[in-house]
Amino acid sequence: MKITRLYADADGETHFEDIEVAWGERSDSGRYAEPIPVKQLIFREVHANYDLDWHNAPRRQYIINLDAGVRITASDGEVRQIGAGEVFLVEDTTGKGHLSRSIGNQVRRCLFVTLE
Asked: Domain residues for 86?
C-alpha cells in the first residue's frame, strides 16, 4: 500500500515522497501494520471549485479522499493528483507550503486523521 507524503526540507522547500506501509502481523483474514497513535478524526467536504493559494498543512495529518481527488503542487514544482481512495500524509507545517486545487470541479469528501 502506497502513501504519498508531502514534507518540507531544511530549506523550507516542499517535496513529495512515496512511502510504503510496513506490514507486520498476519492473521487468517489478512495482515496489519503497526498502530499509529492519532489525535482526532475530522470529516471534511471541500467545495467543487476549491483552489487554495500557497499554504502549509495546519498540522501533521493523513488525508483520505473518499469520493474525489485533489491536485497538489509542491514548492519544488512537482504536481501530483491524489485520487479517491488514496492516502496522503501532509507534514509541511513549516516552509513554503503547497497549492491545493479541485479536480474536475467535483465536491470532495475526505477524512483528516490528525497525528499526535
From this structure: 2-115
